[in-house]
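**Folding the chain**
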Amino acid sequence: MTSLTFDRDAASNAHPGAHFDGKGTNFALFSENAEAVELCLFDADDTETRLRLPDMEGGMWYGYLPGIRPGQRYGYRVHGPYDPENGHRFNPNKLLIDPYARQLDGTVTWHDSLFGYDVSTGDDTTFDHRDSAAYVPKCYVTDPAYDWDADRALYTPWRDTVIYEAHVRGLTMQHPDVPEDSRGTFAGLASRPVIDHLQRIGATAIELLPVHAYLQDSHLIEKGLKNYWGYNTLNFFAPERRYLRSGEWGEIKDAIARFHQEGIEVILDVVYNHTAEGSELGPTLSFRGIDNASYYLHGDDMRHCYDTTGTGNTLNVAHPMVLRMVLDSLRHWVQEMHVDGFRFDLASTLGREATGFEREGSFFAAIRQDPVLASVKLIAEPWDIGDGGYQVGGFPWPFREWNDKFRDDTRAFWARRGGMKGRLAERLCGSPVQFDHSNRPATSSVNFIAAHDGFTLWDVVSYNEKHNAANGEDNRDGHDNNISDNMGVEGPTEDAKVLAARLRRARAMLSTLMLSRGVPMLLAGDELGNSQGGNNNAYCQDNEIGWTDWDTGRTDLLDTVSELGALRRRIPILRERNFDTETVVTWRGPSGEELSAEEWEDDDAPVVMDVRAAQDRVLIVVNGGDDAEVTLPKGSWAVAFASEAEVVALDGLRLDMGWQTVAVIEPA
């Protein structure tokens, strides 16, 4: 590499990362406890040139190099004390990934040199002298220029939003109409067959499992498995390279622009609660070697990470520069990549202050005042594994929340567990106990029956027990409380009656989801009857177990979801935005009269949700039990929807409801 000299007059500490200005690149890295920072530049043959960043202010080390252009590969080595007892783990023998890198050239190759200590001893107070550069991906200097043409944010109102949760790779790997060379990539994700499918079922947003660059866990590799879901972030700016057919990050921009042209928003599942470096016994890949004491949360004992995530570490978002990194990452994905929103994994961790979870804490306050971030869709997974971590209903506006109470109560009602009618009524009304406070809207609840973590919908009606043997943990992993019912046979069956019963219940559950107040979220494949063979923790199954099966033959479910999507769009009263409206809900029993206390306790008797607002009126009839007859209120009525059309008949004011069915009745 030719001789390089920093231009100190052109240097800036304003923006962390590597920023190309057309003539050269400015490099800046935050480490308030470092003693020196080396910028490492790599030639095509991996020859390394080390240059010490010449300036530092407030912990920001920086320097400007003329002539360095996009495509240049780089990394860092950071000098400082190796003093684990005081939280410092600097080791310049370890090549480090820039936390602000926009693109990486590969993946981590597991080797003992990746650890800052001598891993063979198991003693993290030892010091390892081996060079890790050969095993760490290099960062790229990138050019953010992209012709977005007329692309614009869609800002689909929450009341009109229907979310489709999917995996970039898993959604298309088995899609027969997606070109083979595009399967598993953003190019395949935004292909015509996928877009047509989303539009058919009425999905307005696709929510993607993590697309940030992530680490393949060594213990999974040893078992012949992979980290499939991606909840092990290595870098918060760079995309996962294997999701790019072209290898270039512009492919993501192409995909997002195409989705926007078709009226579909893109929401990213993001993991800012921890990183891939694990506990203090984990590797030194980036944050740990840059400034362990700043980037990670510690208890009174600075040697050990404080873990509220179950992954070994917790990102210290209470530190202003770590919080800035998270906010810069979010803004990067909104402003440069044009995504429409985020779902925050284990979001309770992000709200932890010194006294515990704080809904008015610094993280939420920072986002709420940010003019870029406050305007996009924000969804919290409202729990973590720490004390006081379960916070459903506890997040501030404008956050929406995954509502696992909807999932559990809906499953229990249709599985005929008993005593669930009142709870189902709450879920149909948008879970007001959890969300009708602090001026929060009825769209605060993101309702779902199944998500990536747990049984698919078809497995909910096909298995009583989890079947996770393929994960290599002797079936110990995954949840045991699945609230499922196999309808008489565990797993696959050729029994026509059992299959018919499963389809019937699945349609009823999908109907409940789409007819409830709030924001419905479908798990990719549930509209097809996709199964994971009873595996309720497919995080390591990058294969047919975890991939969406497009050839189940259960078109009944697809037709049901499509019909419900159209119905939801047509009838505004099904999409109410606020709790404090003039809408009146009357709960009626089979006789047509208001439900008595005794009838509230009888899950087997049908319930009628009579919803009236101004001139609009609709009846949602739910029959969780056997065949029954329902008397409707006085008026002239027509069946707008029935989960089992052939067994629902109107005769004057009499409605014959087949067993385990849902119907929507509107004025004729």
Q: What stands out?
A: The longest strand covers residues 616-623. The chain has a mean pLDDT of 95.
